[in-house]
Amino acid sequence: MKKLITTLGPMQIEDIGMMLSHEHIFTDLRTEAATGFGLADTDDVIATRKPELDRARQAGINVIVECTPIGVARRVDILLAVSKASGFSLVVPTGVYREPWLPDWVKAASMESLRAWMLGELQGNIGGTGVRAAWIKISAGDDGMTAHEAKVLEAAALAGIETNAVIGSHTVKGSTVRTQLDLLEKTGYRADRFIWIHTQAEPDISLHVEMARRGAWLSYDNVGSPESDEIILDCLLKMVGLGFTDQLLISHDRGWYDPAKPHGGVAEPFTHIVETFLPKLRAAGLEEFAIRKLMKDNPFHAFAR
Ligand SMILES: [Zn+2]
């Protein structure tokens, strides 16, 4: 039976109300050299993020995928504390971000040792927290993959083949996704277990179509940013019209506690999609079964294993 691994235990599809596939609770986009990188008072994170998780639950959302990997301050201890304090299930990744955020130990590591590290987090737990990683988050440079990023991708593929964990990659160019899928398929990893995170960053829609035809998930994940809603609405209608409804994901990519700001900065709400964007989709003629796929079936099937 396919299960979604969360901070509060495994879930089946009937346990899901609505699910957001790309958000953050805690992230530090500075690099490791910055003073106070990744540091915060756990109680302050809870105090400032729990109200928005409570609001999300009132709106019918009960699972959020946390997309912060190693390199941008993944703090599983904090995620678990927030999750327990709010009773809100989070889906946590193994994996590592891109250069220049790659820690030195990742640069020095062999592909094989990175594979073993990811596998340990996907099959056991993350650093003694008891939290098992559900999926693999990686990234590629804006101008294509570096050698280190390709090594991380190959390690992810091999760990993913053994666990059926999905790989999600922050990749802004469709041409880079093409290279990533080529490399993945060479290892035997299936394109339909790959999520193209930030698909909306690629203006050439023919590349969205090309990757969807190969089987990849398309993640339109900056809903609620200035001017993005109309662009994403157009993309969704086009992709649904072409028959790719089962491969589409939507989310906000927001909400995180930023240790560089007092009290982590403003907690942006996780409810814009439910309150504002879904009504726009309905008004544009998207049917209820497609809305249910976007908010429940698709994120579950992408991340469950
Ligand atoms: Zn993100």
Question: What attributes does this structure have?
Answer:
305 residues, alpha/beta, TIM Barrel, six-stranded parallel sheet, 42% helix, binds zinc ion
Quick summary of this structure?
Helix content is 42%, strand content 12%. The strands form two sheets. A six-stranded parallel β-sheet has the order 4-5-6-7-8-9. The protein has a three-stranded parallel β-sheet with strand order 1-2-3.
Summarize the helices and strands and which ones pair or pack.
Layout: E1 18-23, H1 42-58, E2 61-66, H2 76-86, E3 89-91, E4 93-94, H3 104-108, H4 111-123, E5 135-139, H5 147-163, E6 167-170, H6 174-187, E7 194-197, H7 205-214, E8 217-220, H8 228-241, E9 248-250, H9 272-283, H10 288-303
Parallel strand pairs: 1-2, 2-3, 4-5, 5-6, 6-7, 7-8, 8-9
This protein binds zinc ion (ZN).
Q: CATH homologous superfamily - what is it?
A: Metal-dependent hydrolases
Regions with pLDDT < 50 over 5+ consecutive residues? none
Helix content: 40-55%
Q: CATH class, please?
A: Alpha Beta
Question: Which architecture does the CATH hierarchy give at level 2?
Answer: Alpha-Beta Barrel
Q: How would you characterize the largest beta sheet?
A: 6 strands, parallel
- Domain module tally: 1
Strand order within the widest beta sheet: 4-5-6-7-8-9
Can you tell me about this structure?
The structure is a single chain. This protein has 305 residues and is of the alpha/beta class. The protein is built from 10 helices and 9 strands. The strands form 2 sheets. Strands 4-5-6-7-8-9 form a 6-stranded parallel sheet. A 3-stranded parallel sheet has the order 1-2-3. The structure holds zinc ion. Zinc ion (ZN) binds next to loops.
